[in-house]
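If it is no trouble, might I ask you for a protein's amino acid sequence along with its backbone structure tokens?
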Amino acid sequence: MEGQERLLFIDFEFTMPEGKANPKGFYPEIIEVGIVSVRNHKVEEQFSSYVRPVRFPLLSERCKTFLQISQAKIDEGISFSELLTTLNKYNEHSPATVITWGNMDMKVLRQNCQMNNEVFPFLGKSRDLSMEYKKFFGDRNQTGLWKAVEEYGKKATGKHHCALDDALTTYNLFKLVEEDKRYLQKPTPPTIGERIDLSKVLNKYAT
């Protein structure tokens, strides 16, 4: 098991200010985490929890409405330190590859670590699936996670902006994109004309 690469599909939800003007010292804090751990193409573990913010512990009305989340649920969540303990657990044997939709999740995690004087937990590769999707399909603009799934003619998992559901949706989309990549990399079977030189055959019968 130790020799197999672990892929971590991660989604975070963050705090947000009430309006456009940020309160003094405000920065987005992680308030929900969803993790899908995959090894050898199989889901080995799922993890989901609310997380208590440190700097601004009270959620704005905008945040509660947008995420359909209550203050009571957040107050029952794990601490940021406990979140880092959980994340570090996935790096016990070898650095995991973290896959997210967009680059905000790792940016906010890194900032949260800095603001709390904690060590960033991931040492392995980090992949932004939204950029891979954009390059693969030649899109000019980045596509939202759920729109990308719909473009495949599929349905997303569960509820949008629920961290675990979004992490599962990212994993399912990853499988679809990887399958397409493998399909396009397969060499096409040679045509009859490529297998034999028709000009030689025609010349033979012309003489």
Remarks:
- Residues 6-206 form a domain with the Nucleotidyltransferase; domain 5 fold (CATH 3.30.420.10).
- The chain has nine helices and five strands.
- The chain has a mean pLDDT of 86.
